[in-house]
Structure formats: structure tokens, C-alpha cells
Amino acid sequence: MTSNSIPLDIDHAKHSVGGMSGHIFRRFTHVIMCLIPFLYYTRGDQLSKLVSMNPNQFVISCLLILISLELIRLYFGIIIVGQREYEAKQISALAWGAFAVCLALIFSPESKNFDGMESGLYAAPLIWGLTFVDPIMGEIKRSKKGLKFAIIGGLITSYIIWFSSSYFLGTPILASLILAPLTVIGELPTVRWIDDNATMVLLPLAILLIIEPFL
């Protein structure tokens, strides 16, 4: 195991600011991000108009603000409750996740036939994969049940998300079949230079952009 990798079964609660309470807060912030697609696709126009922008401009502005705040945090070596000790000197998981979510909203193809949540037929499950699959796999690994069980739990969760999106949002079944396991694969990297919060979204997003013309 190199210094640039993270043990698969590491107990992150022991390395988080605030201990177990910080770890729970971190998981809570993960799960609460599931609301982002609902807000964007059902209230995005109203929210962005408050600052005289369209939804895409609003997301890009949020992304630029997040990048600026992360650079300031890194410069001063600040870590907040729920963050891990090593994040004082590298891009945080929160920043990676926010970056990936913004890219999913900006670049995911939208339905041309529907408004509201149905127009988020790809971005919504991409984001929900991050918000639910990552905590579930992380907790299974933290409980020392092994990578195999974590992958199984992640796949079950991911397929539930994607097939539910196929049923409720009209996501093509073929897309769900292909992208659900990629969400899980994106959680597996254990390197420090990029967090799985990013790869869980960016890997399936990249493949989606390639296969979308054929769906």
C-alpha cells in the first residue's frame, strides 16, 4: 500500500474531525445531496431567476464559487467537521463531489419531450448514485465485511436507482444496465489524488456522453 492510496477497509470515523459525530455529519451531507436534482429540475428556473441567471449559468456560478472556496481552504489548511485529516492538504471529498454534481447537471443530456424531473432522466440517477451508493459501500467496508459485500451492496443499490429512474423518469433501460455498474466501479479507486465522490459520477457521465446518441 503506497502513501498515495487509502486502505479499503479504513475506519474513516477515526480519522474524521469530530470523530463518529463528524462521520455521521459527513454521511448526512452525502445523502442530503439527493435533493439537488429535485431542486434543479423542478425549481431551477425560479431559483436562478432570483439572481438573473438561467439554471445552467447558476450551476456554473456555484461551481466557480465552490472552486474559489476550496482554494482558500487549501491555502489555509482548514478542515471542518466531518472532513478527514489528510484533506487539509488536498482537494476534499466534498469539493470533488460538488464539482462532479455540477458537471452532471451541466453536461448530462436532457429529455426533449418532458419538463420537470423527467428532463433529468440521466443527471438525477448519476447524482443519486453518488448520494446513496457511496455511503452504503463505505459503511459495508468500514464494518470489515470485505470488498465483495461492498460491491454487491453497491450494485443492488445502484440498479434500484437506475431502474427506478427508467420507470419514473424514462431513462432508457439500456443506459441503466450499462451505467449502474459504472457507478460502483467509480467508487473503487483508493488513491488520494482524486476522490471517489468524483469518479462515481464522472465515469458513468463520460460513458453516457459516448453512448447517448445510440440510446
Tell me how many strands there are.
Answer: 0
Into which percent range does the helicity of residues fall? 55-70%
Shape designation: globular
Order of helices and strands: HHHHHHHH
- Distance between the ends: 41 Å
Mean pLDDT: 89
The protein's oligomeric status is single chain
Class based on secondary structure composition and strand pairing: mainly alpha
Q: Which spans have pLDDT < 50 for at least 5 consecutive residues?
A: none
Radius of gyration: 17 Å
Kindly summarize this structure in a few lines.
The protein is an all-alpha fold. Helix content is 64%, strand content 0%.
Structure report:
The structure is a single chain. The chain is built from 8 helices and no strands. It is globular, with a radius of gyration of 17 Å. It is 64% helix and 0% strand. It has one domain. The chain has helices spanning 19-32, 35-49, 55-76, 93-107, 123-142, 147-168, 173-185, 196-211.
